[in-house]
Each structure stands twice: as structure tokens, then as C-alpha cells.
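Database export, one record per block. Field names are fixed; values are copied verbatim from the stored entry.
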Amino acid sequence: MNQDKEHLQLLAIFHYVAAGLAAMLSFFPLLYSVVGGFLLYAAHHPGSGNQEPPPAVLGWVFIVLGALFFLAGATMAICILIAGRSLALCKRYSFALVMACIECLFIPFGTILGVFTIVVLSRESVKALFLTAETPG
């Protein structure tokens, strides 16, 4: 039982690290929004040559997609952080298990972390820890 708690604490720490990396990497899609801003500027301020300016819709597509991917990455980072906190407190077993399955999509680190989390959460003794922590009293 003590070893299970130790494994859960280690997994929680690794989830915190993964959440930090995911949060940091979620800022990269904002570069697409910057490119979209340049395209939008170029569409409204054509050059002096015979060049046709890019359509303004293209700039908006880049801006919207960059913002959406940023929000998706930030949401994923927050969910990974909550899953790590759930593991540390032995609460929200289903949420932690679903997040471990989703993390498996992020090769290579998410896959490793997700598989280890699934293995630890599949133990009957760990399930009992979550049940005793969630029951009041």
C-alpha cells in the first residue's frame, strides 16, 4: 500500500512536468496568428509593384487556427495538471484514467507517462486507495 502511494506521488510529479511542457509548447501556434496578422496587414496595404496582395480571408484563417490550437494546448495542459493533482490526492479516478489514455497520443513522453499511469491505476490496491479517499469520514 505504501508503494502504491509512492508510485502515485511520482506519477503526480511527472504529470506536473508534462503539464508545464504542454503549456510551454501551446504557445507555438500563436506564431501562426502572428503570420496571419502580417497577411492581414499585407492584404490591406498592397505593395507598389504589380503583385496581387493576399486575400484577407487567408490572414483570418491563420489567426483563428493559431488561436484555436493555442486554446486546445492550454486546455490540455490544464487537464494534465488536474490529473496530476487527482493522482496526488487519490481522487477522481475516472478522470485520471481517461487523461492517461489521452496522454498516450502525445508521442514519446505522453505515451510513456500514459502507459505507466494506466498500469498503476489498474492495480486493485490503487483502486482501493481511491475508494477510501473518496468516501467521507
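Remark 1: The chain has one domain: 2-134.
Remark 2: Helices lie at 2-25, 30-44, 56-89, 93-103, 109-121, 124-134.
End of record.
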